[in-house]
Give the backbone structure.
Amino acid sequence: MTKVNTVLGPINTEDLGFTLMHEHLLCAFPNAYRDYPDILVPNALEYVITRLKQAKAEGVDTVVDLTTLDLGRDVLFIQEASRQSGVKVIACTGWWLDVPRFVSGIMGSVTVDQMAESFVREIDKGIGDTGIKPGILKSASDMGGVTPPQEIALRAVARAHLKTGVPIVIHSYHPGQVAKQQLDILKEEGVDFKYVKVDHCNDTTDVEYLTWILEQGCTMGLDRYPGRLVSPLARTKTLKALMVAGYGDKLCPSHDCLLSYVLPEGFTTEQYEVLNPHRILYLKKVVFPWLKEMGVAEGKINQLCVTGPRNFLEGK
């Protein structure tokens, strides 16, 4: 049994229940809810609480919020949404793609170790003065490969993991097999891949490449539903293929869903969310019924968001 930090304090991994491993309660930019609430979805906090309560009623117990600071992480917003909805929420530390200028500025750069210590401080003491401790480390690279600033952040995440034991999630671009670059760097830093989850893997249907990632010992995030680039049905066929191949206990389906966000002028939330009105219930409402139609046993379907997340957070 392992403990993991949530925004309401540590819990035992055996209490995680049905867990969505890659979602965003509020995704915009730093201080968006405090300073620019008028450009977000109306009554953003209440809107998120309502969505979380709906998910809780359908059996969702825990959500991992992978919103980093550059994506607008607001841990007090997350904490209040968790408290009022009853859904456990795990926050993260690290950086997404927008690694700030101070990392590679003209006057010099923050070092890997300096950045790593910032992550360690958040894990050990809490984010700012909130006392809220993250339970995940995150790094990201995309279609441009691992850029120099992103490499600093990735190595910093690796070193913070080695000091704290907090597991790592990496955002990657799978049509370009960028995960191979990221994993090479983590290997150089001495990271055991059982503590690494590679996300957005269902942006490709290349089962050979996905199998390679799993064979390195990583957990796999199939966490873009409905997603772009690949159809939802094709994503689900890939999920089934990996389950049939025996990797079900290393898979973490989720949505990468923004529950609150910057709402474009002239749109209602219903119009903006037309492609996925189910939000973080899309798996339960659409994907799991598809898997059942494809002949996957109901027991295995029900364990998809239980066993994989728990194994990952326990380092199995």
